[in-house]
């Protein structure tokens, strides 16, 4: 199982419970605004502590309330791409990409996969939304994660940029072979990218 998740948390004045077990490839978390999709990614990444339940990814237990296991975020080996790209504004694209990387050995390969090689010398403020997101995905990949968490990677992009970003994610899915959990509330996006869909809310 890639993701084996069963978590409960009190959020926004109500109890949120999300449970799913998923195989490899891309698993979509699909549901309306406020349903708890981002909270679920935060619990898997270790940024929000569930009140109960467990989180296992690729057979590794990251959290288990009953067993008293709660790995800190830096030991979970998650590549988390937030809804806003959150690049470091004072570092060029190349330095952003290499921020969590142990070496630059895979820089060229990842830059090619995401079609961002021409951007390496640019400053984040000069990038389009789609470019910034692809850089954020590249940064996550270069940190050598065990799995990827992508929070609405295509939202607020225009049609052309959306297509570019979708293709980049498809290439990552096919090349990296990492389990990916992707949040969206767009049914067409869920259909195209997902190997399976988990409904939240
Ligand atoms: N920091 C927080 N503290 C308390 N409640 C929060 C916090 N962040 C979100 N919530 C609440 O938790 C619930 C789930 O929010 P969450 O962001 O996980 O939903 P979502 O499905 O990702 O929504 P969206 O699609 O709008 O991003 C909502 O009711 C929200 O108001």
Query: Percent range for helical residues?
Result: 25-40%
What is the CATH C level class, in words? Alpha Beta
How do the helices and strands follow one another from N- to C-terminus?
Answer: EEEHEEEEHHHEHEHE
CATH superfamily: P-loop containing nucleotide triphosphate hydrolases
Number of strands: 10
CATH architecture: 3-Layer(aba) Sandwich
What is the CATH third-level topology name? Rossmann fold
Distance linking N and C termini: 23 Å
- The pLDDT mean sits at 92
Q: Write out the distinct hetero groups bound to the structure.
A: adenosine-5'-triphosphate
Note the total helix count. 6
State the domain count: 1
Write the layout of secondary structure elements.
Blueprint: E1 3-11, E2 14-22, E3 26-30, H1 37-45, E4 52-57, E5 60-64, E6 69-70, E7 78-81, H2 93-97, H3 107-114, H4 129-142, E8 147-151, H5 159-176, E9 180-184, H6 187-193, E10 196-199
The site of adenosine-5'-triphosphate (ATP) has 11 residues, from helix 1.
């Amino acid at each position: 199982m890639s993701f084996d998740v069963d978590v409960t948390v009190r959020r926004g004045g109500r109890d949120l419970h999300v449970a799913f077990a998923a195989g490899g490839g891309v698993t979509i978390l699909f549901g309306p605004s406020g349903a708890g999709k981002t909270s679920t990614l935060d619990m898997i990444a270790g940024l929000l502590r569930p009140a109960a339940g467990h989180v296992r990814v690729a057979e590794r237990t990251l959290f288990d309330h009953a067993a008293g296991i709660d790995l800190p975020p830096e030991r979970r080996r998650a590549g988390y791409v937030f809804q806003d790209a959150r690049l470091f504004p004072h570092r060029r694209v190349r330095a952003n990409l290499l921020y969590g990387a142990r070496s630059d050995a895979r820089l060229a390969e990842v830059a090619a996969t995401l079609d961002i090689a021409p951007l390496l010398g640019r400053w984040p403020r000069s990038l389009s939304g789609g470019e910034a997101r692809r850089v954020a995905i590249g940064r996550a990949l270069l940190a050598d994660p065990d799995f990827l968490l992508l929070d609405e990677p295509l939202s607020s992009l225009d049609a052309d940029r959306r297509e570019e970003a979708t293709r980049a994610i498809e290439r990552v899915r096919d090349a990296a072979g990492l389990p990916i959990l992707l949040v969206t509330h767009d049914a067409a996006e869920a259909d195209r990218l997902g190997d399976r869909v988990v409904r939240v809310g």
